[in-house]
Every structure is written in structure tokens, then in C-alpha cells.
Amino acid sequence: MPVLRRSSDKFPQANKNQLTAMYIAMVVRNAMEDFHAKHLSDAQMAELNPIIRNAIYTALYVIDRRHSDLRAKASMKFTYDMIPSYWELPQLIDEFANDNPPDQT
Question: Residue 6 falls within a domain, yes or no?
Fold first, then answer.
């Protein structure tokens, strides 16, 4: 059985939010694979990947600071208000698609 490396071993200089952003970005990238194969070149995907990673990291940074930083609070409110009402709620995918997550309200 292969030894699993922790992301912190691969990226020892990374902070917790950077590691979390990289994990989330990898989940997004894997979910986009069929779309990538049909509609995006490898060059386009290579350009898109850091945009996704950096946006996720920025969102995590803002979430962490929303109670202590007025810029973060304003940014979070502005961005949240931009979410259109017609968006579907997120669904679990892949091997978790049939799970029933607990209500997190």
C-alpha cells in the first residue's frame, strides 16, 4: 500500500488556508475534467487552475477575517449579495453523491 503524503509535507511553507484552497481547487478541477476534455484546451485549463486556487484562497482569507476586518466584512457582503437567486444549491458529487449531510443551519 502506498504511503500517503500530507499536503503540508509537499508544501511546508503553506498556511492552513492555502492547503485548504489547494484541496478545494483539486476537487473543482477533478469535477471539471469532462468539461475540460470537451471544451477547454490544456493551455486554457492551465490558465484557469491558478485563478480558481487564488479565488478560493481569497474567499477563505475573507471568511476568516470577516469579524475583525471591515474590508473583509464588506467584501463578503458584496460578494454574497451578488449570488443570483436562480443558482441551485450545491450537491455532493462523486462517491459522496448519495450521502445525506446533516443540516448545518
Answer: no
* pLDDT tier, 5 (very low <50, low <70, confident <90, very high otherwise): low
Q: Is residue 95 part of a domain?
A: no
* CA atoms in the 13 A half-sphere facing the CB of 85: 0
Residue at 58 is within a domain: yes
pLDDT at 1: 47
**Host domain of residue 71:** 14-78
Say if CB 7 and CB 23 are below 8 A apart.
Answer: yes
| Residue 97 placed within a domain | no
What whole-number distance in Å separates Cα of residue 27 and Cα of residue 29? 5
Count structural domains, the chain. Answer: 1
The CB-side HSE value for 64 (13 A sphere, CA atoms) comes to 12
The answer to whether residues 99 and 92 touch, using CB atoms and an 8 Å cutoff, is yes
